[in-house]
Amino acid sequence: MQFSRGHLIDLTPLRTSPAFARMWIGSLLTGIGGQLTIVTVMLHVFDLTASTLAVSMIAVAGLVPMIVAGLYGGMLADAFDRRKVALIAASIAFCATALLAALTWTGTETIWWLYALSMIIAATNSVGFATRTAIVPRLIPIDQLAAASALNGISFGLTVMAGPALAGLLVALTGFGWTYTIDVVLMTSMFLGLWTLPALRPEGEIVRPGLASLVDGWRFLRGAGNIRMQYLLDIIAMTFGHPLVLFPALGAVLLGGGAVTTGILTAAVAVGTFTSSLFSGRVVQYRWHGRGIARAVQAYGMTIALFGTVLLVGTFVPGASATAPNILLIVCACVALALSGAADNVSSIYRNTMMQAAVPDAMRGRLQGVFIIVVAGGPRVGALYAGVLATATSLWFPPLLGGFLVIALVALLARTTPRFRGYDALNPEP
Fold it and tell me: How far is 342 from 90, CA to CA, in rounded Å?
């Protein structure tokens, strides 16, 4: 097939909306710093405990605060100026990260401090992400939403490529303190992107935060079958097909290379995300988003099963260590993870566009709050699944089993929901 410029990512949202462009750049730089901290905390906990289960508990500990913050933050975004809500959330995350750096530099950090501050950062990031996502449809036309979602894929790909790889190198070369400090510096860019936005009060009927607002959002979601189905498919993918928590142990035990391998494996997912966004020109033109989501999630399951197969082969190739990594196995694992990132990103483009186009503005914050709980909560449940199962069996078993479970469950659900399969982006219906 002949390549054309039409295959490349559509940059129109950045050209037509300076406000969107500033927020996008701020989110990109802050995201790189955030990934530095996420990976560094994982390595920090593993360094203190030598336990994969302890690493998985970082994600589990933040689940309840993230759910509460996501739900309440969504209500705040539907009741108040979304610019102010996003600024407050960014400020709290900034302070928590600065405290994490200060504790590390003074040598007073403990595993409980790492858990507690990770919980605070996860909760405030839930509020901030949900609010910023609800802002996007106010900054660009509806026909540019899919292109904006692809641009967010570029941003995510760059952050997860640069952040984890840099974290692994910094931890290996300088220790934990510098990594947290760099995140503090990078987070300041988010304030520039948000501070220059105009006031963004929700449009339509405003319901103040509280039980009535929550019930109102739940009532809308009950009638939004397409939105519910995309939530469910993402939960399945992230619960059974999210092997991130295994990466520190893989670098230390199975694949070798230590912290550097942990960073490379995490970055490999982002390489797929970035590449699929870069060549998303045709993807954003596909109008049958429900069908696209189902197929992309099944492809994701296949790639995770492939990753598990690579690890299974690795168990028969002894000799890897932190100083003598198995390069061939690491490359094969990275290829599988890159393919998983590409498949997940295609699904994400369609899911984000569906959320922003089919949900009315007055309801968008609350639904985005639920959406971020699904997007971030699924991997945390998946971390528990992978951590417990790997502890009870072997490192290769959770992704191999999980990949096949994703394929089977998505096929079953897609077959029983013809309305979701027929979702048309030209006629968005929740």
Answer: 29
Contact yes or no for 52/397 (Cβ under 8 A): no
What's the pTM value of the predicted model, to 2 decimals? 0.73
- Region at 50 (left for phi over 0; alpha for psi -120 to 50; beta for the rest): left
Interior/surface letters 391-421, b for 16+ CB within 10 angstroms, e for the rest? eeeebbbbbbbbbbbbbebbeebbeebeebb
pLDDT by residue (tens digit) across 106-131?
A: 888 888 888 889 889 888 888 888 78
User: Which residues 6+ apart lie within 8 Å of 188 measured at CB?
Assistant: 94
What residue numbers bound the domain in which 134 lies? Answer: 14-197+210-421
| Structural tokens at position 411 | 């096929």
What CA–CA distances, in Å, run from 394 to 42, 249, 388?
19, 11, 10
- Write the pLDDT tens digit of every residue in 74-105: 788 888 888 888 899 999 999 999 999 999 89
* Residue 176: closest CA among 114, 232, 85: 114
Split into its structural domains, the chain has a count of: 1
Asked whether residue 49 is domain-assigned, the answer is yes
357 φ, ψ to 5°? -90, -35
